[in-house]
Each structure stands twice: as C-alpha cells, then as structure tokens.
Amino acid sequence: MSDPRPAEMEIEGPKRSIWRNLSLTWLIPIAALAITLLIAWQSWAERGARIEITFENAAGIVPGETALRFRDVNIGLVEDVTFANDLSSVRIGARIDNIVAESLPSDAEFWVVRPEVSASGISGLSTVLSGVYIEAAFEPQEGAEATRFVGRDTAPLVRPGMRGTRIVLRAPDGAMLSAGAPIFHQGIEVGRIETPRLLESGNGVIADAFIEAPHDRRVTTSTRFWDTSGFNVNFGPQGLDLSVGSVAALIRGGIAFDTVVSGGNPVPSRYVFDLFDDETAARDSVFSQSIDNAVDLVVEFDESVRGLEAGAPVTYRGLKIGAVNALGAFIDDVSGEQRVKLRASISIDPRALGLEDDTAAEAEIITFLSESVQDGLRARLASQGLFSQSLMVELVTIPEAEPAALGIFDTEAPVLPSVESNVPDVAATAEGLFQRIDDLPVEELMEQAIATLRSVESFAGDPDLRAVPGSVSGLLDEARGLIGSEETQALPGELNATVTALREIVEDLREAGTAEKLAAALDGATAATDSVSSVATEITAATEEVPALIEEMRDLVAKANALQLEAFVDRATALADSADRLIASDATQALPGEINATVAELRGVAEDLRAADAIGRLMSTLESASAAADSVTGVAMDLSGATEQVPALVDDLRRLVETANDLPLEAFIEQATNLVASADRLVDSDQTRALPGALTRMLDEARSALEELREGGVVENTNATLASARDAAAAIEEAAESLPSLSAQIQSMVGEAELALQGYGENSRFNRETLSALREVQSAAEALNKLARSIERNPNSLLFGR
Amino acid sequence: MSVESPADALDPSKLIACPACDALYTDRDVATGETARCVRCHAVLEAPRRTAMTRIIMLALAALILMVAAIFFPFLELEAAGRIQRASLLDTVQAFSSGLTAPLTFAMAALIVILPVIRFLALIYVLGPMAFGHKPARHAEFFFRLADHLRPWAMAEVFIVGVAVALVKVAGLAHIFIGPAFWAFVALVIVTVLKDNFMSRLTLWKTLERRRAS
Amino acid sequence: MEDAGTAPRILTAKQAGLVGCTECGRVHAPGVARCTRCGTRLASRDTASLQRVWAWLFAGLVVYVPANLYPMLRTTLLGKTTESTIFGGVVDLMHHGSYGVAAIVFVASIVIPVSKFIAIGYLALSVQRRVQMSAHKRHLLYEAVEFIGRWSMIDVFVVAILSSLVQLDFAASINPGIAAVSFALSVAFTMISALSFDSRLIWDVDVGVNENE
What we know:
The complex is a heterotrimer. Chain A is an alpha+beta fold. In chain A, 50% of the residues lie in helices and 20% in strands. Chain A is built from 21 helices and 26 strands. In chain A, the strands form 5 sheets. Chain A has a 7-stranded mixed beta sheet with strand order 5-8-2-3-4-1-9. A 7-stranded mixed beta barrel of chain A has the order 10-14-12-11-18-15-19. In chain A, strand 24 (377-383) and strand 25 (391-397) form a beta hairpin. Chain B has 2 domains: 1-48, no CATH class; 50-213. Chain C has 2 domains: 1-44; 47-212, Butyryl-CoA Dehydrogenase, subunit A, domain 3 (Up-down Bundle). Helices cover 58% and strands 10% of the residues of chain C. Chain C contains 7 helices and 6 strands; from the N terminus they run E-E-H-E-E-H-H-H-H-E-E-H-H. In chain C, the strands form 2 sheets. Chain C has a 4-stranded antiparallel beta sheet with strand order 4-3-6-5. In chain C, strands 1-2 form a two-stranded antiparallel ribbon. In chain C, a hairpin with a 2-residue loop joins strand 3 (73-77) and strand 4. The A-B interface holds A 16, 18, 20-23, 25-26, 28-29, 31-33, 36, 39-40, 43, 64-65, 67, 126, 129-131 and B 51, 53-55, 58-59, 61-62, 65-66, 68-69, 72-74, 81-84, 86, 131-133, 180, 184, 187, 191. Chain B: Keywords: Membrane, Transmembrane, Transmembrane helix. Chain B: This is Paraquat-inducible protein A.
C-alpha cells in the first residue's frame, strides 16, 4: 500500500454548452417564425364567421370566388359547396365579416343574383362579367347571430325593411298576372306582384302583391283591382270600348286599382282581392259576391229572357241595386201540367236600397221586401237601351198589380213575383203598327168609296150634268195640252240635270269628310227617332180612333148621297168654267216655259257653286243642319205633344160630325153653295185672271236675277248665300236653344268630337256613343230588315188583306 | 501559397486542388475570418467563419418557415372588370397544368418549392448535429453533396424577380394586391442569398470530414 | 493571401499526376474512384465532358427555335384570343410604353440565351483550339455564364404568374403557350451544358501555352 497521493482531478473538457453556438442571429428564424405565426393568427381571427345557406342548386357559385353582398358591399365569400345529407339540396358555406355576422337575424334572405329578364325589366347584367354573387337582405338586429339559412330562388318581392301592405290577388286565369308586374294607382307605380301560382282547387290563380307605403293607405276593402296590361276591347251593352294604357303598361303589363266606393275598412295583411278584366268590370263589380250581406232572390219569368245574361244589372227606378247571378230553367208542376219556367237568381245590395249596412239580419231585409211586394213591388224584364237587345231586371212598384207575396222558403232564396215586361221591341212595335194598319177596315172603306163614286156617277148620268163633263173635259184638254207642251216635257230633263249637278256636289261633300258631322247629325237623328218612336206610339194610339171616325164619316156621306145637289152642281159647273178660262189664258200657257227657264238657271247656278268649291261652307251648314235636326227633335217633341192632342182632335171631329149629323143639311148646302159662289167670283175676278201674268212676270224677274247672279260673280254671292243660309240655320239653332238641354248636348258632343280627334288612346265618349248609336241603328236596321222581309213575302197583305 | 517543386513527393492529404482550375496548393488551416483564394482564378478556397454553421442553419430554418408562409398565405390578388382573382403560390405553380404545357407544372413546383426545400432540409440535416457539437449524421456527405448540386436549380430568387416583372406588366391594367406570402418569399430569397454567401464549400467539407473523423 | 504575381507558375494536379476532387478540393492519388472526403466520383479530366457540353448545347439550341416560333402567351380579351411569341411580347410591351419591362424581357429571353449559346460554344471551342482570349478572361466568362444561366427562367415564371393571376372568365384571361415549355427546356439544357463543362479544361490550355512559352 502506498501512501495516499493526491488524486488526479477529473478533468472534463470545457463544457460544450448548447449556448455556445447560439448567437443573436438565432433571432432571425425566431422572428420569421413569430411574424409568420402572427400573420397566420391574424388572418385566422379576421376570417369571419361561417354561415350556411341552403339553395336548391349551386348554379354559378364558385367556392372561393363567389362573393356575398349586402347593400352592394362585399361582406363575405363562399367557402365551399356541399350537398345536404340526402342530396336534395346544396349547402353553401360562406364566411362573412364579423361585424355583419353579429347583426344577422334568422329571417335574413339570401338569393343568387344572375342576369334575368323579367316583366319588370332586365336585371343583374353586371354579373355576366363579374360572375354571380349572393345578395343578402335583412334588417340588422344587434346580437342576432344566426348561422343557418335557406336561400331563395328569386329576389324577394319585399326587402326586409320595406314598409307597406301585403295583399293577395285572385284571378280566374294567370294570363293577366305576370311575375314582377307593377301595380299602378292613377298612373303611378305603387307596388308589385310576385309570381302567380295556381290555387289548390285549380280553378284560379293567386299572386302575392305588395303595395308600398304610404300608398297602401289607399287600399281598403272596397278597392278594386283590374288588369291594365295591353289594351282592351270591350263590346257590351254600353257599346264598343277601346282603351289603351300607357306604352309601358302595354309591354310590362300591369294592374291598377282604385277605391270604387267609399266606406271601406282598412285592409289586413294578406287580404284577398279579385282581379277584374278591365276598369269597367271592376267598377261594376261593387255588387259582386264580395258584398257580405247581399240578398239573394229568385225571379221567375214566363216570357222569353233572351237578352238577359249573368251580370246584367238589377235596377229600381233607374238605380242599379244588384246584379243577375245566374239563369236557369225548371219544370213547374202547375195543376198537373208540367211547364218549363225560366228563373233568374239575382242578388241585391241592401245598401243601395237605402237599408243600413249594419242591419246584418237578413230577416229584416226579407221583411222589408215582403212588405214592398205587398205594396206592389214586382220584377220585370226591361231593355237596357232603346235599340239594344240586352235585357235587365227592373223592380217596379205597380200599385194595381195582382196581389202576390214574396215567396219565402226554407232552403231556397225568396221568390220575387214578376210581371210581364213591356219591352219596347221595335220590331214588334213596327210589326204591331203594321198589324193594326192591316187590321184597318181598308176594304170596306174602299167599297164605300166605290159606292160613293157610283152614286156620283149616277149624278153625272143626269143630262144636266152631262154638260159639265164637256166643259170639264175641255178643261182637262187644256190641262193636258199644258202638260204635253214641250217646255213641260223638257222639265224632267232639266230637273234631271239639276239633280246630277246636285249629286256631284254631294260627292264632293262626302270626300270632304263630313262623316263626323253627319254622325253628329245622326245623333240628333237618334234623338229624333227616339221622340219619333214615342210619337209613333201615340200615333198608334191615335190610329185606334180612326176606324170609329171613318164610320161616322161614312154615315155623313150616305146622308150627303141623299141630298139634292143640283143647284150645287150648277154652281160647281160655273166654277169649273171660270177655272177653265183661267187655265186657257195665255199667261198660264206660258208658265211651263217660264218654269223651264228658271230651272235651267238654277242648274247653272248649281254648277257654278260646285266649281266655286264652297263645300266648306256647306260643312258648317251641315253643322247647323245637325242643330236643325235637333230642333226637329224638339219639334218632334212638340209633335209628340201635339199628337197627344190628336185623340182630343178626333173627339172634336167626332163631335163636329155629330153636329153635322144633326144639322139641317139644307142650311149646310146653302152655305156650301155660297162658298162655291164666292170662290167663283174670286176666280172670275180680274185680279185672279191677271194672276198668271203676275206669275210670269215674277218668274221673269227671277230669271234675270239668276242671270245677274251668274254674271255678277256667283262665288261671292254663293258664299254670301251660304253664309246667309248658315245664319239662317244658326237662327234655327238659336231657336232650338230655347230647349237648353239639347243645345248643351250638341256643344258637348262637338267638343268631344274635337277631343277625340286630338288625343289618341283616350277613352272618348264620342267614339263610344257614335259606335253605340251605330249599333242601335244596326239593330233597328235588323228589325226593319225583318219587317221588310215579311212584307216582301206578302206585299199584298198591306193593301188587300190576306 | 507556395509552389512546390514537382520533384517533391506530394502527399495528397496535405494538398488541396482548386476545384475550378485544378491548381495545387498546400493545405493549411486558415484562421477564422480569413479567406483563402486560388491564385489563378480567384475562386474562394477556404473561408472559415465563426459560427458559420450556426448561421447557416438558422438561415435555413428561417427560410423554411418563410417558405411555409409563402405557400399558405395569400400571394397575389388581381382585381379587374369587377372580378377578383386570387392566386396563391400553388396556383402559380399550377398555371401550366392544362394542355400541352402540363409537364412544366412539375418543373415549376420543383424549381420554386421542392428543390429549395430539399436544400434547406439537407443543410439542416448536415449541419445541425455539428452545430451542436455532435458528430455529423449518417449520409451527411450525400446530403451535403445533394444540397450543393441542387444549388443552381433552386430558383427562388429568379422566381421572385419574375413575379416583380409580371406585376409591373399588369399593374397598369388592373389593381394588384400583394399578400403576405409575397413578402415572405422576398424574405426567403434574401435569406437564401445570405446563407449561400456564408457557405464556403471547401471549408464545410473539411469541417465535415474533421468532425466525422473525430 | 498572397497573390503570386502576374505569371505565377502554377502546378495543376493533373500535371502532378494527382487528381483533385472538383467538389471538395481534396487531392487524391490517381486511380481512386471516389473522393474520400465527399464521395464524389473522381476524374482527372472528363474527356467525355466536352461531348456532353456540345450535346446539351445543341439540344438547347434546337429547343430554343420553337420557343421563339410558337406563342409564349395566349391572351383572351373579351373573347378575342391573341397569341404572342417572346419577341412579339417584347414589341407589344414597347408599343404599350413599358420600355423597362420590355427591356427586361428582351434581355432575359433573347439576349441572354443567345449569348449563352455563343459563350458556351466559344468556351468549348477554346478548349480544342487556340483562341485569343486568355484563360483568366475565359474563366470569368464561364463564371458569368454559370451565374446568369438560371436567370433566363424569368420569362417562364412571368408567364406562370400572369396565367395564374389573369383568369377573369370573360373579361380577360392569359394562358401559357407551348413556347413556355420549350423555352424552359432550352434554359435547362443550356444550364446542364454549362454545368457539364469542366472549367479546369480552360486552364489546361493556358498551362499548355504557358509551358510552351
């Protein structure tokens, strides 16, 4: 063992610490790492919230490219496109800015904006270049953070946040509704409709519509909607109606509305409105089924209801109170006999009858109606226009009607009793008139006249009287000579030429387009015919008196037959002689020549007139002629008033005849003889003999005057003449103005004619009335045609009976 | 370096031949901070640097991280005609992927991404253990040779200059957004250039040999 | 270190009968297959390298022709497609006024590749025949070629970037043409050609000249 020696130290080499090789330069990769991570974390944090939208398909959507926009600002990007679990829809995952995602409510709407051509225009064209994008619309709500949504197929009708009212429009077919079509009110677009869809029952189409505030205030329960797209041609009882909306409505289509009656209630959301074909139908529909408490009644008619159709109005004293719903027939068992009866079901709006709207109880209305029926309320058919074939149901109070009661049944609607109609069927009236004429004892009258002539002949057999024919025949010879003279023969030729000249004038008139004036004249003629018709009615009544009158006249003639008339005859002979002398005089012979020459002059004047082209004046003359026609109407009215007096006149005549019957006829004959004597004295007097000479001189002067006219410049004179003619017509017009209503009508019609010519596309009453007048004339022509045809078939029936 | 006479026995282990011009030199240790060059062609022969390896490794690491950033961050964004087109680095690589130019896609990916990444990884693999004082890893020589051979083919810096040229070309027509990946790539290029300058090939080989032997 | 002067007497490994590793500089005795330091295959002078150089150079030249004839870029503007070759692209850029970019593209895509062809060809020739340029300068030329070679790839990258960026569906889109592939191949081939060139050969001739003097 050795001594313990100091041990060797364990020497470790210099510690190779890890930090030996580290230097500050290690910071570089650490810095790089840190920056990288920072950027990564930042982009992760800013990534935005993820939402999922479910669409039906992902057309045009590209993950990573398709943007989401809200109010036209990019708010996010589509991340991925995946299928839903059962492959039935596509789920789009997108990232949205956090700021937006925080206020995203669950009713937000998303849709894909693509180029679209729709009824309201072309939209989304920019997406052709930039690619489709998804648009969002929502009302931002703080704190709502919805993440799952269902996307829409199309842009929503109403963006969330738009104020207004949603309603539903219902139409029988979808031709009137097109998606996106605008809704107008008094020409301003106030809303829009969505895509129409079929009703479940399949017999109609409904579409959601949205009316923007503040215009939605105007929509009440009595608002009516109608289709204003394109143009409308309507041919109905009121006549022909052509209406064109604006050009925009022509292309886009559209729906307009107006509140037709007052008193409607504010409309709750999704209230259903019916859509009508046009404005007229809409306004007429105030009495449609949407009236809550319309009263349904049934009326049975025994007569033909041709011309009555569903929708025809029901009137009371001229006021429309309801409409006809349907027509039908049913077999009625009347005392064992089965008869087919015609039945019309009508509905009446009680408000129009003055009943309060809040009398909800139908029973009260029924009570009122049954009381009225007991007082004489009946239903009957009436014509909608004078010449129109359309019928309507009119309720009238006929105090002396047969007693009837409102038929009340348990299950059916109450039955309103009806009376026979007095439809003034023109054809029937005309036929009736001719029927009556036909019924006149014309044959007997003719026989009586023949008998009378026979007795007169026996008079003539009297040898004293035989001398009369001699002189009478001499008279006749003179007259014949007069007629046979060359000048007279030439008269027709002259007249012919004159007529030709006149006809050419008329041609020019026609080319100058006097149709409108003529139409106005026709209008007056229409009114005239109206009054003429009433006159005819009165004449009809008057003619009923005629047979009785004729009877009495016949008695009178019989009495006259028995009289001794020899002295009378002598006087008559003397009268004839002096008349003969008058006729034989040279002056009278020269008359035809004069007349001839005068007619020739007239013709010359007419030709100059035509050459002078004074048609314009004629036009205004026509105007006044129209006015004159209206005055004729007035005159006819007077006539009508006059004819009312005919029965009285007939009565007077009858009384006269009776008086004549009672008169001592000898005194009568004495008086007649005195009359004849004085007539003889008159004829024999020098003045009368000088009359033809005076006539001839007058004619000479007229002829020279016409010559002067021609040489002296016909034109100015003609114009002056026409001017004075116009003034004359104006005077007539002024005279007619004493009937103020007629004048106002003329002026308004002329004014409307001007308006019609000015504006295109406006509803012009002129057109409507013209066409309605034409239509009525056409119906009248048809009726007359029928009449003419029946006369043609048997023309002799008018004269000689069957 | 002195010139030996041909008659002297030449011990290969004490000599060093210039790789460029094959001139023979006596190998001696060069102090850190000094640079030994070839007399004839002035190629750098030895350039030991303090903590060169560490720096190289760290630069390679940074380059790797930047490469990752460049791949995954948005690279460029073009906005024109209302459309926005985003291109990442991978989109650029795939630009040729349709039609006849398809083979070029792989070449692009290699040149821009794959080869540089392989270089970085190889360098880290080779130098990492040595930086911490350990022996070099297995096949370190192979990987070092690989990294060296791949050097001309890693064209990251060419790419970035190309991107710059393209942007200048397009900038007049549209709106260009440059994303973080672009800057990461620029940094990557700078880092790569620095790293490559730090390397003296021969010194590293010597170090590798020495460490391997130790 | 010390610069030996204007005309140093340099002994090459070949002259010494030794083999130097091109990769790591280690000197070996002849006959050793692989370098002991780095494992690279050793060859004193790669005799076949010149053939490789010429082969790759010609390949690069051959592929360079379609690169210029075929379109490099296919631009579709609003449906209208226009194709432009490299040179056409340069002309277009000049028309548009971006002279700088046009210059860069022109230099990178036309000047550089062509000069590379010429330079490598010249260098290869210089090994086999006598040329005017000194070895030093040729070495610098070689270094320049090696450095610049990769930068020709810029054009390909530019095409790639434009193609990936400008894909705006309808408004505009740029797609690469076939010329991009052949241009890339051309650059690759010339790069390989340059890399195959044994730069030591440059100095051999010089040595030979020097020795002969």
